[in-house]
Amino acid sequence: KAGVTQTPRYLIKTRGQQVxxxxxxxxxxxxxxxYQQTPGQxxxxxxxYFSETQRNKGNFPGRFxxxxxxxxxxxxxxxxxxxxxxxxxxxxxxxxxGEKLFFGSGTQLSVL
Amino acid sequence: DAKTTQPPSMxxxxxRAANLPCNHSTISGNEYVYWYRQIHSQGxxxxxxxxxNNETNEMASLIITEDRKSSTLILPHATLRDTxxxxxxxxxxxxxxxxxxxxxxxxxxxxx
Lengths: 112, 112
What we know:
The complex is a heterodimer.
Chain A: E1 5-7, E2 10-13, E3 19-24, E4 31-38, E5 42-50, E6 53-57, E7 64-68, E8 74-78, E9 87-94, E10 102-103, E11 107-111
Parallel strand pairs in A: 2-11
Antiparallel strand pairs in A: 1-3, 3-8, 4-5, 4-9, 5-6, 7-8, 9-10, 9-11
Chain B: E1 9-13, E2 18-23, E3 33-38, E4 45-50, E5 55-56, E6 61-64, E7 70-75, E8 84-94, E9 97-101, E10 106-111
Parallel strand pairs in B: 1-10
Antiparallel strand pairs in B: 2-7, 3-4, 3-8, 5-6, 6-7, 8-9, 8-10
């Protein structure tokens, strides 16, 4: 069974640009959640999607958004990038959400 | 929200047991304790979880105190590949709103 796939693995953007990250969950998993990881803050929850609906949301500004498609694949978008958005963005999938999570390897975003 | 407290770092000799403590003094009755680990440049990996009773699987054992205010993850025979950051997390469950609150974890160094 294939694991969680995140693309791209690395990304370099400049301030003010926008970016879209992609996550393909494990087959059969309906919940996809996103996390931001920085050295000083650890993993910060962004949002969770279940059956194409955002079910839960962390404390991030509206520049951070996401969506989930009917095949459970998910994308997250960050608009008007800031230097502080530089981080590792992790996607995790699970059957129903909240229980055992399976993580991808993440997308390392650098904002210059 | 229940939060966890872990020592920032620990050392362990290869072949010996690694005992990683976690304090979750504000945990409520229906909240589970989860443990994950993150090896450098990878996404977190699920290890084990429990509610009240001690749990064991092929990776580790989880000991939860009777008052549930703390727990210990035990790696019975640590190897160099167990060098990672270990996260102790409490699962919040409020209806459909489930989110894991991540701390900064314990950086475990297994030494030869």
